[in-house]
Amino acid sequence: MRVLxxxxxxxxxxxxxxxxxxxxxxxxxxxxxxSFLVDLAEAVSHADVIVHLAGENRPAVDExxxxxxVGTTEKxxxxxxxxxxxxxxxxxxxxxxxxxxxxxxxxRQAEKxxxxxxxxxxxxxxxxxxxxxxxxxxxxxYNSVVATFCHEVARGSQPAVFGGERELSLVYVDDVxxxxxxxxxxxxxxxVFRDVSPEYRITVDSLLQRIQSFRNCRQDLVVERxxxxxxxxxxxxxxxxxxxxxFSYPLPAYTDPRGGFVEMLxxxxxxxxxxxxxxxxxxxxxxxxxxxTEKFLVIRGRARFRFRHILTDEAHEFxxxxxxPVVVDTIPGWAHDITNIGDDELIVMLWANEVxxxxxxxxxxxxx
Length: 368
Description:
By secondary structure, the protein is α/β, with parallel strands linked by helices. The protein folds into two domains: about 1-130 and about 170-200, 3-Layer(aba) Sandwich (Rossmann fold); about 255-365, Jelly Rolls. It has helices spanning about 10-20, 35-45, 65-85, 100-120, 145-155, 175-185, 205-220, 230-240; strands spanning about 1-5, 25-30, 50, 90-95, 125-130, 130-135, 165-170, 190-195, 200-205, 220-225, 255, 260-265, 270-280, 285-290, 295-300, 300-310, 315-320, 325-330, 335-340, 345-350, 365. Strands 10, 11, 12, 13, 15, 18 and 20 form a seven-stranded mixed beta sheet that branches. A hairpin with a 2-residue loop joins strand 11 and strand 12 (about 260-265). Helix 1 crosses helix 6, helix 2 packs parallel to helix 3 (about 65-85) and helix 3 (about 65-85) packs parallel to helix 4. It is elongated, with a radius of gyration of 29 Å.
């Protein structure tokens, strides 16, 4: 399927173009602001579907809303008519199309032109009235508060906040692209409106606080619950705004004659990750826990794990190696230690099910 994307150099256009180029069934042709008028007729003549993203949202004067939104849409309709065959059109409109500001009025008029064209010809048209869209490659200090906050917080600045209690409606750009691709697979005659889901709601103040927490995790090592929903999408967006000199950050390392210990990451509800090293012949551990549990994975070297039940003195031991990955669980009520039985430095990854609390360490010294 030959897909023509207008406004392909914009925020949504870049994301759509990259995603579609990953899908073998799509061949993508792009038009940007410079090539729209020059190449429009020829590009339309070779298109099987058009995703119309070209438009204006921050012109110098309000009159340019009409030229950028209504004008480009009517030129596109004219090119399709001239071609003499139906070509489905997906149009990125805005929630502001129901408002009486200059931008909203221009988007509403563009919608009406497309709907009238569809009614007269049966040409398939799908209109998306999008709320605020956020994600990677959105220009900061332009028309996205998410992009602006992420850009400034990533650089250590404190963004100015206006209307902090105002609630925002947001959709994530990856979800927008998914809906566009889904709509192309479900085309039908006539004009239809579609929404993007999930749609998130958050106040401006809460948005800034959440984005700031992502940067704070580089100091306190406590990462937010970034596995799903809005926090996942915001975290991915924030990371995409980091300057290249902040792609990495140092961690404190604690060393003694036995080796080193480094905490990597702490979570709100799933414990923490760390690693330690041990020189040949060194034994680490020698304690038990009442509730805390851990998982050890030898990354390099050879290790001997020993266990002793603190009531019965039942003993157990076994060897593991970085050459054959094995996860070793520590069991509440069993004292345990680990010895480097190899000739090289031992490196062990460690996950604990709770973040270490110095006030309640749940770690009791006990020889194995």
